[in-house]
């Protein structure tokens, strides 16, 4: 077999960071190659180099035995490389055909008009060739995410791609769509295409790839054939050390019900039902975790609970009071803390300094405001306290939030919310993008709150985190909490199955579970 | 914290890096506009004809217009020539102050809205409505009072009425934006036309002064107008009004920076999602910001009526639009509005001086105004020049903007469990 | 800081317009109601209104009033569809209105003057494009600046050249009368009009075609909806935006030149003879949901109201002139508030960076 892609000693430096460090990678023609690694391991950077988005600081890119220098993606496209980004590059109000042919429209009358029939025909032909089921005349905004992904793949194929790079292609897909995608992979490789896909999920890589290359801290730590390896080996390669995320969780007494959600139905931004009649309680001194593949309604659920999204149905009782119709501000004031999913959109005002951000949400609380006037001196003290206790760097309250690294932004938000003296903490991915030391600290603080009788609603895509911290664990799938389990006597496999929408006892007659949903931080078996 | 520390702290906050840059950009824009204006004057001076004696010569080329003279008149003449003997606060200087006073209010009106993330092009309309309301309200109340007592009551009353009606008129686009998601740029432009049309109808018909051919109300009695101090009463300027304006500059600064309302306003202005997260009621903030903005515009209208023309007359000069210019030049900072209003007050006063002293068309000032705004709108241009001039800075900027943490982070945070991409985020 | 503020602010929601169908339904319904009422009671005000509505003179003057607005609106569509909100259309109209008269005056050729007006508008549009695309200026503020500059520059130039803000009279393009067709009642006005009216019809049709049927039009739309998608498809987003903004300069320039040449004079007092037409044009294309044909009809609606207002006044109808004049503005607000919204291009108002590290 011929080598389709050969990356030779690729190093990519950014100011202060080495994203790729002397990485070699060889991909055989007609195979599926998985690029596996933790968040921040340098996978996407490496692929951006291959796609011409970045110049490598050092190293060579060889395509079909020919060394190439890509000035821009245009050159990569010309060399037969196509990339499907995690965020689809599609023009929503345009049709499937218009999107696929964008930039390379067939024309007639000497370029005076787009030949729409020819374009449509080309798209139909292409999708038939690879067995894709897409409606060439549908508007992209009207089709499902899985279909949009197929449009992206067709777009690359239309431009003559022989090598397809997919960045985290399964992150947004339902398990069925993931299966369909892997079928597409097979179809494509049978026709001689080469596929490289980025993933941080072991199970997926094992299931779909012929070969797996593991990146860690920007280095290639090994390439193995999928058939000859085990999950354990891969996990060791990825993490490279025993990850001591053993969470010691002292038993606590649970108290009264703090949060009671019943029959909650919520729509997403597009008006599609995202949460379906969900009910659960969280008691004082308890961590109620919600596990699930991203995009199964968790975001909408917590936004409804915290007052950022309108409900379609159902009720929310908080501390014995029905807060269903209460605005966000009243929920904050009655003791609901919230670590939001998106720290740069919601959690912090990026142009404000830390002093100003320290009172986001409590700008009307008597602690910092009297008669409409904000007491900036005590606010500043408060910011300094958070910075010190949560080790926010640089320890400068006047630093503009935007100038902080993501991990430090997160620590500041966590600190601010934890110091609110809440009776309920809604924590969405509280340790995302945070270094290991801080993860442990945040976990400790969370458990400390729990022991003080605070109720905690935890959502995380890191399975080890929700499993380790939660007293009870709900699994969310397609807008439903399909089961609530005791995390201590449930295995990861069982959880994985639940997250794919199957109950473990149905295992035998179900297709192979492939969505392990296991964030890589936690391969600590 | 001692008072000195605090003062230094305030100063540091005022003149932080971005504020310094702002000020530099505003100054550079002014200089650049004057430079382009100079070229324009010279070119125009070549296009027109004049006698050889009256021409000025630069580099042996004769020009009919002399830019030095023009800018001398525009800035110094506008202030009544403070560096020549016999300067008096009456005359041109007081006109500059009068214009400054009005521009302070319209500038604050626009700045207030801007800080809430709202583009209020409707200050002009709010000013017109406030002005007419102030005139009618004062006319209604004036028979009940007279003399000094009349002034003490009627002037504040007129301002109050102007503020209330300006505020109510400002609330219309606010409500439309908050509850019907109607874009305020469009609605306020429409409301300007409507305010102009309706008030024109009212003063040409219902409230028309029967003794005048012009479309105007009957004049306010003297005791219902702003008293002049220090300055001659002919100048239509009152120091009290200017002081009131200066107080309002600081008041709005205080409201924005030191109150929870101001915090809500600023937060929704720059990051509405974060404001929502922080419990700010977006709709309420929009409506109240718009009302406050409109009220400031209304005060400008009231001042125009009670201080400048002593009645309401159709065809109010475009102070509202000038307010946009003032606010943009000031970076929407209330204290900056003071300086920008002074600059444009001088320019407006200078317009008439230029007209008298030179043959250069006074519309030049309008061009300068446009140029200043254009340059202020493109800070990137000045950064580019700055980088050329200071290659050292180039490097540090490259670090800050290139690749690095922000990109990596925004990906990591918005994409969930994605590869950190450039992977700058995890390097603590 | 402020520049970022305003970017987010306009990036956030310059939304707020109605989809075309209900708006048109309301307008057409209203007109029909008046029409029917007028037919039944010819002596009533509605009867007079019907007379006016169906008079050839109304259509003819509505068409004439439409020309600058419709052409500027077409220009606005191209710019905004590509992601650049061009609020400076008013300024482009002003500068071209003056230049067209000036060039006609010195050359004696009406169409040479027309071309001169277009060139002036394109140059100003180029300045706007450079400032917005190259130097990443806030589009709204830069657009305002373009308006203010032209608002000062045109009367300034007139004053320098003619010694007063109003120009002397020059030749007009006259009218083209198509025999037979121009005798058709009412619609005859369509065939007895200034060449600029025909030019407008041509421009409306061509604009629709370019936007919907050519690759360029498709790239313009993609550039305003998802520039990154266009970029990764190998098309240079900046180049498309430059082209679109310059095209808006061409179209607005035609509008401004037509405005002044049809009257044979430039008037530069106060808000100049353009007097808000550029802003009405923005409303017109939003009303028309970015469709050139829709924009044309909403322009015709506004211009028709304006024309009616003049006729009404001549006939001495009761309603005060000043109040009739504000009807279109009130209508815009009502439609904005009570009828849905137009979807504006997703990336309109936002600067686009390629975001790679190769430059």
UniProtKB/TrEMBL annotation, chain A:
It is found in: Cell membrane. Residues 5-242, 259-503 form the ABC transporter domain. GO terms for cellular component: plasma membrane. Pfam families: ABC_tran. Its main location: membrane. Residues 502-525 are annotated as: Disordered. It is a peripheral membrane protein. PROSITE patterns: ABC_TRANSPORTER_1, ABC_TRANSPORTER_2. GO terms for molecular function: ATP binding; ATP hydrolysis activity. Keywords: ATP-binding, Cell membrane, Membrane, Nucleotide-binding, Repeat, Translocase, Transport. This is ATP-binding cassette domain-containing protein.
From TrEMBL, chain B:
InterPro entries: ABC_transp_permease (IPR001851). The keyword Ribonucleoprotein does not apply. It is found in: Cell membrane. PANTHER family: ABC TRANSPORTER, PERMEASE PROTEIN, GUANOSINE ABC TRANSPORTER PERMEASE PROTEIN NUPP. Residues 418-428 have a biased composition (Gly residues). Residues 395-409 have a biased composition (Basic and acidic residues). It is a multi-pass membrane protein. Keywords: Cell membrane, Membrane, Transmembrane, Transmembrane helix. This is ABC transporter permease. The keyword Repressor does not apply. The chain crosses the membrane at residues 23-44, 102-121, 127-145, 152-172, 184-203, 237-256, 286-309, 321-347. Residues 395-428 are annotated as: Disordered.
UniProtKB/TrEMBL annotation, chain C:
InterPro entries: ABC_transp_permease. This is ABC transporter permease. The chain crosses the membrane at residues 21-41, 61-79, 84-104, 110-133, 140-162, 186-211, 240-259, 279-302, 323-340. Keywords: Cell membrane, Membrane, Transmembrane, Transmembrane helix. It is found in: Cell membrane. Pfam families: BPD_transp_2. The keyword Transferase does not apply. GO terms for cellular component: plasma membrane. It comes from Haloferax marinum. GO terms for molecular function: transmembrane transporter activity. Its main location: membrane. It is a multi-pass membrane protein. The keyword Nucleus does not apply.
């Amino acid at each position: 077999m011929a080598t389709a892609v050969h990356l030779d000693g690729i190093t990519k430096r950014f100011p202060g960071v080495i994203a790729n460090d002397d990485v070699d990678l060889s991909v055989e023609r007609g195979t599926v190659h998985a690029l596996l690694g933790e968040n921040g391991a340098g996978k996407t950077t490496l692929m951006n180099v291959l796609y011409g988005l970045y110049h490598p600081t050092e190293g060579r890119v060889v395509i079909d035995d020919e060394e190439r220098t890509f000035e821009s993606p245009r050159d990569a496209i010309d060399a037969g490389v196509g990339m499907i980004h995690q965020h689809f590059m599609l023009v929503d109000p345009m049709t499937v055909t218009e999107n696929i042919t964008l930039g390379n429209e067939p024309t007639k009358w000497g370029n005076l008009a787009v030949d729409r029939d020819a374009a449509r025909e080309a798209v139909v032909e292409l999708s038939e060739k690879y067995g894709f089921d897409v409606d060439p005349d549908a508007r992209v905004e009207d089709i499902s995410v899985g279909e949009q992904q197929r449009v992206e793949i067709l777009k690359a194929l239309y431009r003559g791609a022989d090598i397809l790079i997919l960045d985290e292609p399964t992150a947004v897909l339902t398990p069925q769509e993931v299966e369909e995608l892997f079928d597409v992979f097979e179809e494509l490789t049978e026709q001689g295409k080469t596929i490289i896909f980025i993933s941080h999920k072991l199970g997926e890589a094992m299931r779909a790839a012929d070969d797996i290359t593991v990146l860690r801290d920007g280095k290639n730590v090994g390439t193995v054939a999928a058939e000859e390896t085990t999950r354990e080996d891969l996990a060791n390669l990825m993490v490279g050390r025993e990850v001591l995320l053993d969470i010691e969780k002292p038993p606590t007494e649970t108290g009264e019900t703090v949060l009671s959600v019943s029959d909650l139905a919520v729509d997403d931004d597009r008006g599609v039902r995202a949460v379906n009649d969900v009910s659960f309680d969280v008691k004082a001194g308890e961590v109620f975790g919600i596990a699930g593949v991203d995009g199964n309604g968790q975001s909408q659920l917590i936004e409804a609970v915290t007052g950022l999204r309108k409900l379609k149905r159902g009720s929310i009782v908080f501390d014995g009071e029905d807060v269903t119709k209460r605005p966000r501000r009243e929920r904050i004031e009655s003791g609901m803390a919230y670590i939001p999913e998106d720290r740069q959109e919601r959690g912090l005002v990026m142009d404000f300094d830390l002093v100003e951000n320290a009172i986001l949400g409590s700008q009307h609380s008597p602690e910092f405001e009297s008669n409409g006037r904000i007491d900036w001196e005590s606010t500043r003290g408060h910011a300094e306290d958070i910075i010190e206790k949560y080790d926010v760097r640089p320890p400068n309250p006047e630093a503009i939030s935007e100038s902080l690294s993501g991990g430090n932004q997160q620590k500041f938000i966590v600190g601010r919310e934890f110091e609110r003296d809440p009776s309920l903490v809604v924590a969405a991915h509280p340790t995302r993008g945070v270094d290991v030391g801080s993860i442990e600290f945040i976990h400790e603080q969370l458990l400390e709150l729990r022991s003080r009788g605070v109720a905690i609603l935890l959502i995380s895509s890191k399975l080890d985190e929700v499993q380790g911290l939660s007293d009870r664990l709900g699994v969310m799938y397609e807008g439903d909490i399909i089961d609530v389990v005791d995390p201590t006597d449930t295995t990861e496999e069982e959880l994985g199955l639940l997250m794919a929408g199957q109950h473990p006892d149905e295992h035998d007659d179900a297709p192979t579970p492939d969505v392990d949903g296991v964030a890589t931080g936690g391969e600590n078996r | 914290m001692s008072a000195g520390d605090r003062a230094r702290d305030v100063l540091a906050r005022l003149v932080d890096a971005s504020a310094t840059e702002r000020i530099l950009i505003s100054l550079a824009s002014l200089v650049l506009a004057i430079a382009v204006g100079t070229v324009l004057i010279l070119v125009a001076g070549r296009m027109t004809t004049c006698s050889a004696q009256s021409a000025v010569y630069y580099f042996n080329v004769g020009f009919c217009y002399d830019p030095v003279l023009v800018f001398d008149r525009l800035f110094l003449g506008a202030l009544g020539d403070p560096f020549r003997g016999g300067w008096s606060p009456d005359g041109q200087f007081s006109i500059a102050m009068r214009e400054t006073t009005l521009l302070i209010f319209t500038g604050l009106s626009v700045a207030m809205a801007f800080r809430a993330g709202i583009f209020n092009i409707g200050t002009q309309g709010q000013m017109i409505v406030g002005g007419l309301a102030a005139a009618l309200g004062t006319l209604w109340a004036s028979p009940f009072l007279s003399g000094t007592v009349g002034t003490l009551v009627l002037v504040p009353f007129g301002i109050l009425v102007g503020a209330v009606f300006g505020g109510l008129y400002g609330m219309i686009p606010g409500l439309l934006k908050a509850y019907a998601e109607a874009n305020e740029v469009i609605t306020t432009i429409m409301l300007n036309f409507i305010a102009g049309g309706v008030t024109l109808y009212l003063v040409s018909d219902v409230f028309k002064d029967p003794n005048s051919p012009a479309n105007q109300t009957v004049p306010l009695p003297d005791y219902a107008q702003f008293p002049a101090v220090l300055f001659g009463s002919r100048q239509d300027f009152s120091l009290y009004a200017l002081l009131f304006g200066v107080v309002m500059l600081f008041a709005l600064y205080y409201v924005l920076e030191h109150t929870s309302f101001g915090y809500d306003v600023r937060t929704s202005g720059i990051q509405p999602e974060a404001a929502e997260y922080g419990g700010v009621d977006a709709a309420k903030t929009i409506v109240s910001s718009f009302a406050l903005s409109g009220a400031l515009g209304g005060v400008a209208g009231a001042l125009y009526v009670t201080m400048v023309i002593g009645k309401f007359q159709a065809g109010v000069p475009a102070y509202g639009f000038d307010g946009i210019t003032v606010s943009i030049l000031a970076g929407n900072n209330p204290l900056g509005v003071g300086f920008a209003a002074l600059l444009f007050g001088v320019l407006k006063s200078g317009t008439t001086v230029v007209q008298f002293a030179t043959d250069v068309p006074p519309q030049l000032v309008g061009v300068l105004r446009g140029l200043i705004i254009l340059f202020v709108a493109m800070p990137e241009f000045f950064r580019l020049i700055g980088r050329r001039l200071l290659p050292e800075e180039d490097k540090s900027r490259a670090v800050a903007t290139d690749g690095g943490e922000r990109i990596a982070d925004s990906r990591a945070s918005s994409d969930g469990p994605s590869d950190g991409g450039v992977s700058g985020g995890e390097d603590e | 800081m402020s520049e970022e503020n305003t970017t987010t602010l306009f990036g956030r929601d310059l939304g707020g317009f109605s989809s075309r169908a209900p708006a048109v339904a309301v307008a057409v319904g209203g007109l029909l109601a008046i029409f029917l009422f007028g037919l039944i009671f010819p002596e009533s005000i509605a009867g007079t209104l019907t007379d006016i509505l169906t008079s050839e003179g109304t259509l003819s003057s509505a068409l004439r009033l439409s020309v600058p607005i419709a052409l500027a609106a077409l220009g606005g569509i191209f710019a905004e569809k590509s992601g650049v909100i061009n609020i400076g259309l008013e300024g482009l109209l002003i500068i071209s209105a003056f230049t067209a008269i000036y060039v006609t005056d010195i050359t004696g050729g009406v169409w040479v003057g027309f071309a001169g007006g277009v060139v002036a508008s394109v140059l100003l549009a180029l300045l706007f494009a450079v400032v917005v695309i190259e130097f990443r200026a806030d589009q709204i503020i830069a657009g305002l600046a373009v308006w203010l500059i032209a608002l000062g520059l045109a009367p300034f130039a007139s004053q320098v050249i003619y010694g007063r803000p109003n120009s002397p009279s020059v030749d007009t393009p006259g009218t083209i009368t198509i025999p037979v067709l121009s005798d058709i009642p009412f619609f005859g006005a369509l065939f007895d009009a200034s060449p600029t009216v025909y030019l407008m019809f041509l421009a409306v049709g061509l604009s629709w075609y370019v936007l919907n049927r050519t690759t360029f039009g498709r790239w313009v739309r993609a550039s305003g909806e998802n520039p990154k998608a266009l970029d990764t498809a190998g098309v240079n987003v900046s180049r498309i935006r430059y082209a679109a903004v310059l095209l808006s300069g061409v179209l607005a320039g035609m509008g401004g030149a037509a405005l002044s040449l049809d009257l044979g004079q430039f008037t530069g007092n106060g808000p100049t003879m353009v007097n808000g037409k550029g802003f009405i044009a923005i409303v017109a294309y939003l009303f028309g949901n970015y469709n050139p044909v829709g924009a044309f009809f909403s322009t015709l609606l506004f211009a028709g109201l304006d024309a009616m207002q003049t006729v009404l006044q001549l006939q001495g109808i009761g309603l005060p002139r000043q109040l009739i004049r504000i009807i279109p503005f009130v209508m815009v607000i009502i439609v904005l508030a009570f009828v849905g919204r137009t979807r504006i291009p997703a990336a309109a108002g936002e600067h686009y960076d390629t975001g790679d590290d190769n430059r």
